Amino acid sequence: MVTGGQRNDGAMLEQVLADIAVPRLGAGRPRTRPDTVVADRAYSSGVNRRALARRGITTAIPQKKDEIAARQRRGSAGGRPPGLDTETYKGRNVVERHFALTKQWRALATRYDKLAITYRAATVLSACITWSRLLGDMP
User: Fold this and answer.
1) Which pTM was predicted?
2) pLDDT confidence tier of residue 62, bands split at 50, 70 and 90
3) d(CA 70, CA 98)
4) Could you give the CA distance from residue 89 to residue 49 in angstroms, rounded to a whole number?
5) Which residues of 63-91 are buried (b: 16+ CB within 10 A; e: fewer)?
6) Rounded Cα distance, 124 and 3, in Å
7) Domain range list for the chain
């Protein structure tokens, strides 16, 4: 999903989940539900967690410090903290490194393009260049 430059990504979570379609290797319809969503603290809101739980998706999202403090202030009425699979969360750095690599392309980092289709095309081209570099090392 391509949004406005200053738009909160968390607001788009429902639409991104609705657009997922991973083809199966054999016969059958594509998968529309990931096993786990690994995200940073920006996605830790209760709205996002409930939306993921409704779809049966586990999360690896740490809580914000203010959410932890608010829950602890409420005492036993604050409920249990959501679980965090730290081993799964450690894999998030791969995505963050790719974002850092993509932002080396100044047009993508600063979003010069006015049209979403042009910006998306530049993103796809950047991914193709990255993948071709990786595939060039293969025998």
Assistant:
1) 0.72
2) very high
3) 34
4) 16
5) beeebeeebeeeeeeeeeeeeeeeeebee
6) 16
7) 1-85, 92-139
